[in-house]
Amino acid sequence: MQAEIITIGDEILIGQIVDTNSAFISKILNKNGVSVYQITSVQDEATHILQALEDANRRSQVVIITGGLGPTKDDVTKHTLCTYFGDTLQQDPMVLAHIEMLFKKYISTPISDMNRQQALVPTKATILKNDFGTAPGMWMEKAGTVFISLPGVPFEMKALMQHHVIPKIIEKFERPYIIHKTIMTYGLGESAIAERIEVWENALPQDIKLAYLPSLGRVRLRLSAKGRDKNDLQRRINNEVKKLYPLIGEIIYGEEGDESIEAQIAKLLIDKKQTLATAESFTGGKIAQQITALPGASKYFKGSMVAYATETKIKVLGIPVALIEKHSVVSEAVAIAMAERVRILLDTDFAIATTGNAGPSKGDADTPVGTVYIGVCTPSGSFAQQFVMGNHRERIVQKSVNKAFELLQKEILKF
Amino acid sequence: MQAEIITIGDEILIGQIVDTNSAFISKILNKNGVSVYQITSVQDEATHILQALEDANRRSQVVIITGGLGPTKDDVTKHTLCTYFGDTLQQDPMVLAHIEMLFKKYISTPISDMNRQQALVPTKATILKNDFGTAPGMWMEKAGTVFISLPGVPFEMKALMQHHVIPKIIEKFERPYIIHKTIMTYGLGESAIAERIEVWENALPQDIKLAYLPSLGRVRLRLSAKGRDKNDLQRRINNEVKKLYPLIGEIIYGEEGDESIEAQIAKLLIDKKQTLATAESFTGGKIAQQITALPGASKYFKGSMVAYATETKIKVLGIPVALIEKHSVVSEAVAIAMAERVRILLDTDFAIATTGNAGPSKGDADTPVGTVYIGVCTPSGSFAQQFVMGNHRERIVQKSVNKAFELLQKEILKF
């Protein structure tokens, strides 16, 4: 059983926004046994949308359409669906009541004709209630294919997928299980890994597929299988994963692609009832931001000193001027001192610190762009490591954040 | 003249990664007068890729393909291109020399057969040199349509687009100018704005298009036009924008969608030679991270105290315990104190501070989830404002970060 996604909106095709909706929809469909065959982004234009609907109808049983359901004039999706289904629009009293309620509750201005028009829906559509906005989701069927139209605003779309679309798909279609397992590695390139595991890879059962996903110093290996017996799939995939450890065990740092390294660290720290602080220079708060993006971070994360300027390192973090003068602000000694100081200041068990130069121009130190130091301080001591991260600002920061989490995780596991 | 993008990779269709490549490619093509008609994401599978190539060929003169050029076995793009062009692979000595050089320079392990195979390219392809990786870009032509295949690793793809693909497209095709102008507004919903500007919108010239882009408390209005005379387009769009100010001037906070509010703040602070610090509670470093994502941030940004725990607010930021006990940690008084304290500690001209509850559960204060305070401290005083940001963790944080930048920008403009 197969689905397609059609995202509507010129803003995608001129590169003004990144289409994150498709990734969310693909993931949740996959989790529920529905493979996504294709994602198509089309213009806000009736002929183009109609063509995409017809093409998708030929190939797939479920077509999910997002975008083009706003209250303003650039909205064409609803009218195009009417053309496609030979249908007309009529006012839905439930949708209208919901819009009126939202206006009364959240919006001070009086309800406008334009908003009332959002209650106009195709007569053949089953309405999916949008708890967070005025544009309802719509479920329509044609020649055995289901078409689901959702608003493009991500959090409205997400709630509709989770609470309405997925339950209805589960009810309507028999679906296989789709199992993915992702093995996360670092320290070895894609082709070097491929050579080490070649014999294993060639011996994989026909229905278990392997993919290499390289990114910023890491390679993720994804195993996928599809079938009726979930336990059997799980068992067979786990069996293959076990065989990987003797081959590349030393570069594996985790399983399950869904769980980020910061989520694994969170679990470890909560389990051990231990706490963390960070002192960030060139990573500029990104480590703290990734940690606090997880709900419950307050259980183990006390804070971060983003000491971007050298002056801030001295005045707030208390790094001795002499140390900076002797070693330079981008140095092993300063990374260690930053980790140690922030651990004491914020009174935590663990601390990580970063100092380096992300470019494009040289900063307060003469160190070349891309040279960074990551310091770690634990209840039993501290150290720092140097890394050379290339010359691309964004990548230097992201690779360093990843590396900091890796170093930290290894240390926490020792306690 | 029209282009299409085909992104290849199961990882996109299972939602494991978000396709950011397409947004980058669309944007740079648009800037150079090439409209993108459609973006299609397909599986790592020859029949599917072939179908997408044929469909795109019917519609567009330029087809850009990314993904599926890695060294490992899940790579199918190159072989499919050979099938499509009736071509065979042959070793390219220049590509091989480049791969050997990269291995010698950056990788300690010896070069493998798998990497050598990356030098195999279709005989009809013009090679586009990939300075940052082993998989070359390829430029092929068929029946008047150009097919360009690029590796999927974003920074390799970006460099190839900028330095090779765009110059070749400019050389080969006559292109019109495409002009976009985006007006950023906040404080009014999509439909309320639409009503206020209805007469203006209906009077827009046929070839100037308007789109509404709502997101997290803001609505962006995008005007687009396409034509041969750049100055004329620019003049006519600016003329329409001018007419908007009497209608909705008070909710416009900037023009040019490409320039983020933090980039505008950066320019202001650099111009005025003034500095900034932040004290962040529930935003967890995201304000600092967005500021430091811009090159040159060290010119005006001294750092941030990410005081996530109440204890950290007291111990490091020096917020009086009595103040917290009297007003609660999520309060106007604490937001003001945080902004004032961090401004003094880091010795800056401006400071912003956040305290609030992003949920999902209640934190150190009894304040409901979604209630936040943003404090601003300037050379002439300080204040804080309360906002109620809904109940979705990620949105609460992002909306608050946006709001903090808006408040700050208004204050900086007073000096």
The number of distinct structural domains of chain A comes to 3
Mind telling me the CATH class of the largest domain in chain A? Alpha Beta
* CATH architecture label of the largest domain in chain A: 3-Layer(aba) Sandwich
Shape of chain A: globular
Fourth-tier CATH superfamily name of the largest domain in chain A: MoaB/Mog-like domain
| Alpha-beta content class of chain A | alpha/beta
What name is given to the CATH topology of the largest domain in chain A? Molybdenum Cofactor Biosythetic Enzyme, Chain A
Helix % of chain A is 40-55%
- Biggest β-sheet description of chain A: 6 strands, mixed
Q: Per DSSP, what share of the residues of chain A sits in E-state strands of 2 or more residues?
A: 25-35%
Greatest contact between two chains: A-B, 106 and 107 residues
Q: What is the mean predicted local confidence, pLDDT of chain A?
A: 91
Q: How many helices of chain A?
A: 16
Q: Number of DSSP strands of chain A?
A: 17
Radius of gyration of chain A: 26 Å
Describe this structure in words.
The structure is a homodimer of 415-residue chains. With 415 residues, chain A is an alpha/beta fold. Chain A folds into three domains: 2-172, Molybdenum Cofactor Biosythetic Enzyme, Chain A; 177-256, Alpha-Beta Plaits (2-Layer Sandwich); 261-413, CinA-like (Maf protein, Alpha-Beta Complex), CATH 3.90.950.20. In chain A, 42% of the residues lie in helices and 26% in strands. Chain A contains 16 helices and 17 strands. Chain A has helices at residues 10-13, 21-31, 46-59, 77-85, 93-106, 113-116, 154-172, 190-196, 198-202, 230-248, 261-272, 286-292, 310-315, 321-327, 332-346, 393-412, and strands at 2-8, 35-42, 62-66, 89-91, 120-122, 126-128, 137-142, 145-150, 177-186, 209-215, 218-227, 252-255, 276-280, 301-307, 350-356, 371-378, 381-388. Chain A has a six-stranded mixed β-sheet with strand order 2-1-3-8-7-6, with helices on both faces. In chain A, strand 10 and strand 11 form a beta hairpin. The two termini of chain A are 47 Å apart. The relative contact order of chain A is 0.08. The mean pLDDT of chain A is 91. Chains A, B: Belongs to the CinA family. Chains A, B: Residues 4-172 form the MoaB/Mog domain. Chains A, B: It holds the Pfam family CinA_KH. Chains A, B: It comes from Croceitalea dokdonensis DOKDO 023. Chains A, B: This is CinA-like protein.
